[in-house]
Amino acid sequence: MFLRKPFRYTFVNATLTIVLINLAVFFVSMVSPNVKVWLSANYVFMRDGPFHCFWQPLTYMFVHSNWSHILFNMIALICFGYSIERAIGSKEFVLFYLLTGFLDGIISIIVYSKFHMPVFLMGASGAIYALLFAYAVIFPRNRVFIWGILPIQAPVLVLLYAVIEFVSQFSMDSTAHLTHLTGFVVAWIYFVVRMGVHPMKIWKDTFSN
């Protein structure tokens, strides 16, 4: 099956490259704030802007609003991304990261447009949540230390975050909880369609042994 044709394994530390790109865009946006406007995803710009701003569903994931936003996302990217890239190879990792982030953006923008919410979607969080999901599938027995103290098994952490993000979706804060949830969903689909792996079966086998 063409969709499941594997890449030849290589490792070039694409995780670090993605981090550096995020940092470069962040520093440029500090000098020229209009960068955030044009690279973030906004359905009004995509509907009425030049060339319909076709690049935004991809570029939004490299834009961050402030220092804390980019700091926490990049820490998570390094913590989860490096291990995943080592496990599946750099080509598969880049495809996973960009495709899940892209689909997160598309789905989020469609939903926001339906509810007439002209938000500026920005940040790597959607792709980061997809990486967390991938980490829980590839390393289901590993524990993640919350705040560096509380150990939680990776699949349990995914479930916990899914519940938190679902409940938080009904709050009035500015966090893109929908995009976070979508990250889990598209990652699940990626593993089933591209990798031929069923996450629930892996987790069931993990906890039954």
Mean pLDDT, nearest integer? 90
Strand content range: under 5%
- Shape category: globular
Q: In whole angstroms, how far apart are the ends? A: 32 Å
Count helical runs. Answer: 10
Number of strands: 2
- Structural class by helix and strand composition: mainly alpha
Largest sheet: spatial strand order:
1-2
pLDDT < 50 runs, ≥5 residues:
none
Question: Can you give the helix content as a percent range?
Answer: 55-70%
- What pattern of helices and strands is seen along the backbone? HHHHHHHEEHHH
Largest sheet: 2 strands, antiparallel
List the helices and strands and how they pair.
Blueprint: H1 14-31, H2 34-39, H3 43-48, H4 56-59, H5 67-88, H6 90-114, H7 125-138, E1 143-146, E2 150-153, H8 154-168, H9 177-195, H10 199-208
Antiparallel strand pairs: 1-2
Report on the structure:
- By secondary structure, this protein is mainly alpha-helical.
- It is 67% helix and 4% strand.
- The protein has 10 helices and 2 strands.
- It has a two-stranded antiparallel ribbon with strand order 1-2.
- A hairpin with a 3-residue loop joins strand 1 (143-146) and strand 2 (150-153).
- Helix 1 runs antiparallel to helix 5 (67-88) and helix 7 crosses helix 9.
- The longest helix is centred in the middle third of the chain and has 25 residues, at 90-114.
- The chain is globular.
